[in-house]
Write a structure and sequence with these properties.
Elements lengths: L6 E5 L3 H11 L4 E5 L2 H11 L3 E5 L7 H10 L8 E5 L3 H11 L3 E4 L4 H24 L11 H18 L3 E8 L2 H8 L1 H18 L6 E6 L2 E7 L3 H18 L14 E8 L7 H17 L5 E5 L8
Parallel strand pairs: 1-2, 1-3, 3-4, 4-5, 9-10
Antiparallel strand pairs: 6-8, 6-9, 7-8
Helix pairs in contact: 2-3, 7-8, 8-9
Keywords: Nucleotidyltransferase, Phosphoprotein, Transferase
Catalytic activity: 2 GTP = 3',3'-c-di-GMP + 2 diphosphate
EC number: 2.7.7.65
């Protein structure tokens, strides 16, 4: 999910301190606030901020405990945390940095210092995110790899469950790629994979939609906020994009050109759903598309409350 402005979560039990930091930051960034630990943890998980500015001294759950819980959660552990403190700086900085904080702001805060340090940390985060994205790209096709997809699938599942929104999963195979490799050679087969992958990726029009290589000639796609009916537009685009490549395939019984088969499954995730169940339904739909002659899509909409594997 892309944002026009970076999102910063500010956590402080003092309304005055929250107001000061909000005024300093809001001209440049989007800002959300929390006044206690539980709210901060919930917002961090649901909003996925780019940076958290966290006061140390708060009643109940202090900043150290919040930071510790953030770093223990695999979904929030990579969000950079900056502490705000008026305490003994050297001793508290050492403790906070050991817990995973990236920087400190001293009270009373100085607006130019706040903006400079926030900007520096967000730039560092952009660099880390860029390197992470590089490690998530399939080396042959240039689309996302399986590891990247698994991370996106988990993230979008949790987001859909929170917002009671639909989520659609698709599985796609290149029809008779083995026969293509036998007839035209494996180098041509690799070129075919690259062109099909890029054609599919360009057909996923929205920023949140994902296409990834799952293995061999298999691809997987994810469409947040999309139900079964909405997915037909995307599957038609994918099928036509690959057909438009017009790659000759004399040894396919589906068409004289390279084609794909697609299986699609949609549901409304919630905490008790099983993601593997949705994956199985998409696999069943893909099998149905192949059985029906390939070069087509089959869609399954799961309307019940739970998906069972």
């Amino acid at each position: 999910m892309t944002r026009e402005k970076e999102l910063i979560l500010v956590v402080d039990d003092s309304p005055t301190n929250l107001a000061i930091l909000n005024v300093v930051l809001r001209e440049v960034y989007n800002v959300v606030t929390a006044t206690n630990g539980p709210d901060a943890l919930n917002l961090a998980a649901s909003e996925e901020p780019d940076l958290i500015i966290l006061d140390i001294m708060m009643p109940g759950m202090d900043g150290y405990e919040i930071c510790d819980r953030l770093k223990a959660n695999p979904f929030t552990k990579d969000i950079p945390v900056m502490f705000v403190t008026a305490m003994d700086q050297e001793r508290q900085e050492a403790k906070g940095l050991a817990m995973g904080a990236v920087d400190y702001l001293a009270k009373p805060v100085s607006p130019p210092i706040v903006l400079a340090r926030v900007r520096n940390q967000l730039e560092l985060k952009k660099q880390r995110d860029f390197l992470r994205r590089l490690s998530s790209v399939d080396g042959l096709t240039g689309v996302a790899n399986r590891r990247s997809f698994e991370e996106d699938f988990d993230k979008e599942w949790r987001r859909a469950a929170r917002h009671q929104a639909p989520l659609t999963l698709l599985l796609a195979d290149i029809d008779h790629l083995r026969a293509y490799n036998d007839a035209y050679g494996y180098l041509a087969g690799d070129d075919c994979l690259k062109m099909v992958a890029q054609a599919m990726a360009k057909s996923m029009m929205r920023p949140g939609d994902v296409i990834a290589r799952y293995g061999g000639e298999e691809f997987v796609g994810l469409m947040p906020d999309t139900d079964a009916k909405g997915s037909t537009v995307v599957t038609d685009r994918l099928l036509n994009a690959v057909r438009s490549l017009a790659l000759p395939h004399a040894h396919s019984d589906a068409a004289p050109i390279v084609t794909i088969s697609i299986g699609v499954a949609s549901c409304f995730p919630h905490r008790d759903n099983d993601r593997a169940g949705l994956f199985k339904l998409a696999g069943d739909a893909l099998y149905a598309a192949k059985t029906a002659g390939r070069n087509q899509a089959k869609i399954i909409e799961f309307k019940a409350e739970k998906v069972s594997a």
